[in-house]
Amino acid sequence: MTNKIKKIAVLTSGGDAPGMNAAIRSVVRTCAYYNIECAGVYRGFQGMIEGDFKAFNARSVKDIINKGGTILKTARSTEFRTPEGRQKAYESLKKEGIEALVVIGGDGSFTGALQFNKEFNFPVMGIPGTIDNDIFGTTHTLGYDTALNTVVEAVDKIRDTASSHNRLFFVEVMGRDVGHIALNVGVGAGAEEILIPEENLGLDRLLESLRRSKKSGKSSSIVIVAEGDKIGKTVFELKDYVEEHMVEYEVRVSVLGHMQRGGSPSCFDRVLASRMGVKAVETILEGQSNFMVGLINDKIQLTPLENAVKGKSKINKELMRVSDIMTT
Ligand code: F6P
């Protein structure tokens, strides 16, 4: 391994996700393994601008593999979007002797990292961390698996009360513009219908499906609604609409919100984070830059950051078919 780099910094940016701490730990420990210095950058790109760094060694990251959130904090920096802000960030890094950067975050964070690399030829590597799983170049982003488990548990609990009262529940889940969480949780929790942005079911088909399920003898139902779905009504408007057209249903709404981003990471996310951190640092030490580390066919693989930003994650069509069959 060619090792000209002597100091690497790691930061988390955008929405936090379970597994980010495990990834920070992995980056720091891999640096320690190769005897290079490592700095943690607090508050994402904003902290980089302000020189909010702390020297990390292998022991600095003890007891964090099991923790949700990010010990480095995270922020969405508007100043980093300006050339002046990025210039300040570059000067802070130089002053600290930092020669490469690992960014743990989503596509917005990667766009910032790429811009920074273009302007200052500064080596950057990306680790995908977001519960949404909306990043091209990996089948799983950090936090996605944990979020699925968190949401499935929440929906199971809602099912208990739904069936006790013979109610229909609309449960809104996160996912930004994609329906990965909704689709997987919908299948995993046995939802009646799943509304995702990738397929507009339409109000008529929704009613038809609910009528069919009532007729088939079901007394309660769960409909999972992705926050980015394209049906054209909020979950609260959907409730009113269904109650108006199907008086036989008593409807309730549950918006799960930010609890989906919290909690201790699943074993899958911890292992994935550990693998990704090692690969990110080793890739930098091989003299490479501008890649995102991802999981493809269960192997850790590199995708050019540019493709990760431009590409689109695909919804699992086979799972959509499974879901259709399961709701008969
Ligand atoms: O990207 C993660 C995510 O939790 C999305 O699912 C959601 O749309 C968004 O972040 C919420 O962002 P904020 O933290 O600004 O409320």
TrEMBL record:
Molecular function as annotated in GO: 6-phosphofructokinase activity; AMP binding; ATP binding; fructose-6-phosphate binding; identical protein binding; metal ion binding; monosaccharide binding
GO cellular component assignments: 6-phosphofructokinase complex
Annotated residues for binding of substrate: 130-132, 167, 174-176, 227, 252, 258-261
Highest taxon of the lineage: Bacteria
Listed EC numbers: 2.7.1.11
Keywords associated with the record: Allosteric enzyme, ATP-binding, Cytoplasm, Glycolysis, Kinase, Magnesium, Metal-binding, Nucleotide-binding, Transferase
Residue span, Phosphofructokinase domain: 7-284
Top EC group: transferase
Active site (catalytic residues): 132
Binding positions for ATP per the UniProt entry: 15, 76-77, 106-109
GO biological process, one term: fructose 6-phosphate metabolic process
Activity regulation summary: Allosterically activated by ADP and other diphosphonucleosides, and allosterically inhibited by phosphoenolpyruvate.
Function: Catalyzes the phosphorylation of D-fructose 6-phosphate to fructose 1,6-bisphosphate by ATP, the first committing step of glycolysis.
Protein name (record): ATP-dependent 6-phosphofructokinase
Organism: Bizionia paragorgiae
